[in-house]
Q: What sequence folds into this?
């Protein structure tokens, strides 16, 4: 099992120390550093090259959303999991659009936090139920979508399965294809749609009627 290097970005020292103490008991996860604000998070990420950043949204100097945007530009391979107290749809949508793969609230259980870190590290989406509810409400509002490059029939199938929350392995099994082929399809889907993450792709699929929440 690969070691997952985590950077904790939060302006509250007690929160950072509590999360560090929790994660240090978890096999396969190593906390490589802490950051007290958005600017510090960017500097530490560039220096320490973590796999996953736990990012609070409300921090001094530079807020979490802007920090995510800058990090995704400078370190596109980095995975960001938002860990915050806020479940407003504007914050959730802004964070996802900035490039966050997951959105977790601070009232989540330790088990949920560890699971979310592992999911995000694998490139999968991880949303707190309250965050998912807010995104669904957002999806129910009419939205203008720009012109997108057309997807193939197979890419549309893969996109629908992403929207249902399936992992690459599960999609491969469902469509009787290899995982590398699924990864290629996912990359092509994100490129054609101009999106940054599986979460954004799932939202797009739901918004366009390519998948249903009832499936």
A:
């Amino acid at each position: 099992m690969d070691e997952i290097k985590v950077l904790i970005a939060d302006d509250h020292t007690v929160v950072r120390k509590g999360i560090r103490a929790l994660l240090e008991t978890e096999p396969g996860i190593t906390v490589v550093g802490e950051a007290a604000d958005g600017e510090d998070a960017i500097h530490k990420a560039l220096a320490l090259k973590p796999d996953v950043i736990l990012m609070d949204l409300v921090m001094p100097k530079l807020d979490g959303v802007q920090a995510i945007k800058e990090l995704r530009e400078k370190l596109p391979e980095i995975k960001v999991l938002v860990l915050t107290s806020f479940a407003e749809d504007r914050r959730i949508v802004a964070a996802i659009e900035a490039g966050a793969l997951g959105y977790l609230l601070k009232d989540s259980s330790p088990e949920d936090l560890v699971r979310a870190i592992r999911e995000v590290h694998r490139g999968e989406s991880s949303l707190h139920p309250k965050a998912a509810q807010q995104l669904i409400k957002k999806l129910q509002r009419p939205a203008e979508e720009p012109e997108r490059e057309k997807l193939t029939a197979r890419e549309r199938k893969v996109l629908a399965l992403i929207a249902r929350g399936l992992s690459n392995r599960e999609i491969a099994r469902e469509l009787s294809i290899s995982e590398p082929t699924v990864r290629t399809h996912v990359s092509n889907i994100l490129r054609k749609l101009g999106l940054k993450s599986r979460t954004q792709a799932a939202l797009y699929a739901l918004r366009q009627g390519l998948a249903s929440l009832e499936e």
Observations:
- The chain has a mean pLDDT of 85.
- The first strand starts at residue 4 and ends at 9.
